[in-house]
Structures are given as C-alpha cells and as structure tokens.
Amino acid sequence: MSELETSKVGVNGHECRVWRKGTGPSIGYLAGLAGLPKWPLFADALAKEHQVIAPSVPGFPGAEGHRELDTTLDWIVAMRELLNGADLEGPPLVGVSIGATLAAEVAAMWPHKVEKLVLVAPFGIYDEAEPTESPWAQQGQEFAGLFCNNADAYSDFIRRPNDADPVEWPIEMARAREASARLLWPMGDTRIARRLHRIICPTLIIWGADDRVIPRSYAKKFAEAISGPTELVEIANAGHLVDLDQPEALAEEVLRFLR
Amino acid sequence: MKQLWFHLMPYTDLPEDFRDNHPSVWVDVHSSLFDPRKAHGMYNDFMDELEYAADCGFDGICVNEHHSNGYGLMPSPNLIASSLARRTSDAALCVMGNSLALYNPPTRVAEEFAMIDCISGGRLIAGFPVGTPMDTCYAYGQNPSMLRERYLEAHDLVMKAWKEPETFSFNGRYNQQRYVNIWPRPVQNDPHPPVWIPGGGSVETWQWCAEMDYVYCYLSYYGYKAGMATMKGFWEEMDRLGKDKNPYRAGFLQFVGVAETEEEAYKLYKEPAEYFYGRCLHVDPRYATPPGYTTEATMRAGIQGQVSRVASDNKTALAVDKKAREFDAILDNGYVIIGTPDQVADKLKEVARELHVGQLMLLLQYGNMSRDVAMYNTKLYADHVLPQLKDMWDDEWENRWWPKPMAQGQRSIPLPRTLEAAE
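Above: the input entities. Below: the structure tokens describing the complete assembly.
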C-alpha cells in the first residue's frame, strides 16, 4: 500500500488538509465528530482496494475556517469547494456521523456528482418522539463511552501523540467539537429531510447496533426518503462512531457495496 | 464607593433532598418543584426588599436575567426594573443585565432599557452580559459557536440605535433590519446610559471593556478570596493597556450578613447560606461547557497556565475550594462575610482595597432567607456599614460610570394610590 500523502485545499481563505492513501478507484471519506486527528484503521482497510481521499472539513483537525460558516448552505458550498479541490467531484463518498450528514447534503444538492453514497449514522433529522442524545451536553469523560462501544477506541483516537504540541492539541480537539456544534446545534436537525428525495445514487446506510447517540430507527427514515436504491446494514458491537468501534467489519461492508 | 443591593430572586422552597434527588437547579429543574402560589409571595417579598434597600439609602438596586433557573426567577429583569422605576425615586436601577444575543431583534433591548430610563428619569445602568452557557446555549438554544459574535453585533446595534438620530438600516451578519428607529429614546443621551459588563475571567472581555470604556463586573458567588486572582488579572491588563487605575472601572459581588453580634450573625445566616450553596448551586456540569462558548484564546491561556504551573511546580497560586457547602467552610473560603457592622465594614474596606473596586454589589438576601431577615440585614448594613465605606475612593477618583438622572425637581412623583387620588 502507498504511503500517506498530504496536500492542501483552500476554502474561504483557510487551508484544509487532504490525506490520500492507497491505489485503485478514488473514494472520499468524511470522518465523524472528532474529525481526523490521526489516520484511522478504517481508512487503511479501505485503502486496500481504493485510493482513499480524506479531506479535513473546516474546523476539524487539519482545517480551520468553520467560523466563516453560519448557515447550512454555507457548509454545503464549503463542502463543494473542498471536495472539488480534493478531486472528489463524482467519486463515491463515505461519511460517518457528521461526515455522513455533509456527504448526504452534498448528494442532495448535486445529485449527479456523487456516484455512490455510504452514510454511517448521519445526523440531520430530529424526531421528537425518538430524540437523539446531545453530544454536547456531556462531561469530558462521558464522551468516549457515548460515542463508542469501546470507549478506549475513541480515547486512543484523540489522545495526543508524544510529538504533538501539548497546548494546541487539546484546542484542536475542542475546535472539532465546536465545529460540529456550529453546524448541528442544538439538536442535529439540518432540515435535510426536505432534500433527501433528491439523492438518486445507490446508498448504503449503516448503523452501529449499539448507537447511543442516534436511534437505529433513524436508518429507516433516511432510507425511505432517499430516491436512489438503498440498503440497510447494522454492525454488531458498534456504537455511534462505527469506524472507530469496528473498522474492519465496517470496511468489509463498504468495500462489498463499492465493488 | 458605590454600594448596590443585588437580588437574584431565588426560589426559596427547593426541597431538602434537592441535591441528592434532582439533577440540576438549572436547565431541566423540574416544574413540579415550582408552586406559582408560593412564587406570588416570593416575587412580592423580593420586590419589597429591593424597594426597601432603595429607601434605606443604597446607591443602587440590581436585578439580573436567568432562564429555567431555580435560584434566579427573573427571565425578564426589565419587568421588575420597570416596577422599581415607579416605586423608588433616587436609587440607580442596575439591570445586570439583558443577554443581548437572546433578543430578536436586539433593538428590543434598546427599547426596553430606554423605557426604564424614561420612566425612572434617567436612573438606568445598562448591563450587557453574554449570558451563562446554561441560560443562552441550553435553555435558549443559542449556538455556542456564534454566541459571542451575535452578542457583539447586537451590542453595536443597540448602541447605534440609542445614538443615531436618523432612521437607519442595519445589515449585520446575524441581524438585518431595514428600519431602525427606536421610540422611546433614553433620558441619558450624553451619549448613553452607563454600560456595565458582567463577565467571567476572560482576557477578551477585559480588553473589550477597556476599549469601550465600560465597567467590568466580576459577579462570582465565591467571594473575595476566589475573586482576588481574577481582579488582579483585570488590573494587570488595564495597566498593560495604559488605562488608569480608577476603581470605578470595576464591580464586584459579595454575599454579606450583618447582625448585632457575631453569634447572632452566625445563627441568622447559616441556613440561607447553606441553602444557597447546597441547593441553588447544584448545577449539572453537563450544562457548563458547550463547545465554542469558551474562546480559544481563553482556553490557550488556561492550558498554558496549567502547563507552566506544572513545569515550575509553583503551587503558590491561592486555591479557593469552590465546593464548600457547610457554613464554616463557606465562611472560611470567603464566599460570605458575616459579623457585626464594624467587622463587616472593616472586612469590606479591605476587600475593596485589595480587589480595587469602586462599584460594590452586595447580596444581602440569599437562599431561603426570609423577608424579615433580609430587611434586618439591609437596615443594619445601610445604617452602620454603608456610611463607613461611602467616601472611599472619592478623594482621588471620579465615577464616570454612574447614571446622570434628571434633576430631582424635574422628575415626576407617582400619585399615591388612594381612592381620592383616583377620582
């Protein structure tokens, strides 16, 4: 497998990091609530069959500029510029959590520019009858256990490597939380339900069987609203951030769908 | 020295097991704990107390804004202030304040404050807090990542609405108004009512207050010992910015209990203090840190502080326990100052000198303190403590941040409410 390559894309005057690894057909990977402080196992598993392109979304590790974005439309347009700059105008998109929200928003806005879509537990809808858990009304030590079945998977993912700046690293992790809140506060409803019907590409919808943030029943809400052919898959022993809890099992499903 | 009487308006009937069996006094405090008939009595007692404080000679009376809060029953402090404007004649009315980002459009604040200033004949102090996370982000659903910018923009809009004589349009990032032209306008129009900013310990707030020439108020419930580090930081920053050391630039809040003897003070104020620190400050920590509420600069300063403290192993920083709930610990930590009038006056003089504050805000009703005890506390303070502190600073400094009301002879006096008067 090739080495990790880094490049930059400018969005609203801010540089966003783009990571690339692997050979084969390109796919885009948009990570979950923590963004990509590190190259994750899940992306490595995908890179066995694809060139995985992982752009950093404004505000998440590797990119700033979330404070330029006030409305959902601002976010969608920024994503278009980021994806274009990362050569992702057309290839399949794989998104997790907030990354899945953004992938779905882009696919709804430009239905012909996403070949295939994988949505892993996207935010975007809020049903009062089955409310989502707030990712922002938690104490520090509660995040890991809320986001992942295996709390260590999350804690390890955001843990500072020895060579990282001890002041800037925690600020970068906090910034990712702020960026997610900036788009999704207060309840994660981007009104995407009004646009989902515009998604026409084949879409794989995946949920962790133990997701404690977004009820599993939301998978059906997305599937029913999307116009393209949809497939629903549940991954055992996984919480909200399936890519951290079950990287291999998730990659297997995604690779199968993309073949 | 200005001495202002501050009311939080706490619900005084939270159950004894509140801390153990209820998650939070704020945001999701349960409605079954609220008895509107009892609240009728509380509101009227509290307003009696505020009016009494004004009658007793306090320089100002203060109200503030909280939402979904069991220790602060004033979602709209302006409602209380408008009543106080009628029922008091000389005291400054310090509305501490309106959380600007919560008002849509923010010109509502410019209008209501102008009404209070007109009704009171120019006695308003306009407080503009950002607002706590619990009030703004959780109870009112504001986006924490946008809160400060919204606040600053709303501030600019309100100030312009007060000062600009012509109808103007405002095309802000968060507010668009084609026609801004508020009626009424404040009595204090040279150039506007004094502005006080309640804040935590963020450097940006200090810098902003200095730049705008506003009063910075540190409204902590943890007293003078815990306030020392913050106020020291504030004055160092003023110094760095080349501002004078005028103590009237700064306000500080202190809980106080005065009695004839020390023993009596201990007996009278133990229960209300323990009620306040035990039940009223029982806030679910999940609601304390919405992402984006704390700026990166403040976070960076905090982390660097920790890093350098660890590095130099310097443990000299005065650490004040903020979890005390027993009266002895509450007193030891300086959250509440109690004693005879002379003891309290001596202590407050020392506090004012050390923190270097000219606008001293006093909480003389707290927790479930009854109206009788609150009035007793108020009266003793006004008669015996207030006069001892009153002249502090005035030989050296001018309070440029105090209301300039209409002359007494020009101000209306409300008609007495008798049948005869009505006829």
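Note for the figure: Confidence is low (pLDDT under 50) at residues 313-317 of chain B.
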